Amino acid sequence: MTTGTANPTRPGLPNRTLLRLLGSRLAPLLNGTLTALRYRPATAPEPITLPVQYACAGAEILVAAGTPDRKRWWRHFRHGAGAEVLLDGRWIAAEGRLLTGAERDAGAEAYRGRFPRLPLTADTPIVAFTAPPVPLLRGRRLAWTWFLVVTVAEFLGFAIPAVTGALTANSPTAVSLPALLLAGAVEGAALGTGQALVLRRILPAFNTRRWVAATAGAASFAYLAGLAPSTWAAGLVSWPPLVLWPVAAVLGTALLLSIGFAQWLVLRRHLARSARWIFTTAGAWLLGLAGFLGVTMPLWQPGQGLGPTILIGIAGGLVMAATTSAVTGVALRRLPGLR
Question: Judging by beta carbons within 10 Å of its beta carbon (0-12, 13-18, 19+), is residue 131 exposed, middle or buried?
């Protein structure tokens, strides 16, 4: 990432796009990967602003300058200089310094730990920025950030099962069922990742991997519970009502509670008295599924083409994503310890 050559104070179009995203409510989608840096050289008429990839090491933010011969920003901090870093949507004053010696080696190790595939040579400059700690998300800002980020994550994730379902609609069960269960796990992973991007900004030492794994597994189970009646309908119709209705009730309850329960197993490690999350999430998915069916059922018609079928499913997915994220966002804000 560079600041351009003709006008070093004006970022190029790709950097301007990233800077807009970093300054928006969707910034948590890039959290832990990108932030923005602003500094003012003595000879520049205006501050220079650029997006940078960063890693955290304790209270410091580390930024490596790849291809240093083609970049100039890191030279500004060779002897230490003030700057601003965009954290939690706000510009925070920071002090930057170019690391040398043992500090540079430790910084390089921390950077490699965060980005193991990034080429980092012994000559790559690393600048450390020290800034005050960012206040944790709380209140309306927490609910609003959750709504935006989680809606996008769930919407993108749901596109996978929507497309998979349309493509396998006429396939045998041995093909369609495993494909949909896998697609459900992908959707759960996307949802869990979006939620974790916000949760790690409000809960110290939040375990992102456990949360994503729990959500993906629970989503796949929820798909299994939801698909069971239609998959094995031929055998179920022969069951007496006194058996069929309790089984349907159990499956429906398991579907609604699965994601909330799996997530609570992780959440309880960080928040006491958080069991209400199970029932809140169940209610959110009940409303979300009602919204999805309300959009799709009147529009899906027999003999419809593949394209319209997919688009209708994705539109219903957007309604479902917005509904569930709105409900869970309000509920999260009201959990003990987050008010």
Answer: middle
Contact call for residues 202 and 338 (beta carbons, < 8 A):
yes
Measured between alpha carbons, how far apart are the two ends of the chain, in Å? 39
Burial of 306 (0-12, 13-18, 19+ CB in 10 A): exposed
308 and 252 in one domain? yes
Q: For residues 185 and 230, is the Cβ–Cβ distance under 8 A?
A: no
**Residue 339 within a domain:** no
CA-CA distance, 335 to 339, in Å (whole number)?
7
Q: Residue 237's domain spans which residues?
A: 139-333
More confident residue, 26 or 9: 26
pTM: 0.69
pLDDT at 52 over 80: yes
| Strand locations in the chain (E) | 34-39, 48-53, 55-57, 60-64, 81-87, 90-98, 126-130
Q: What's the longest Cα–Cα distance across the chain?
A: 84
Which of 130, 158, 193 finishes a domain?
Answer: 130
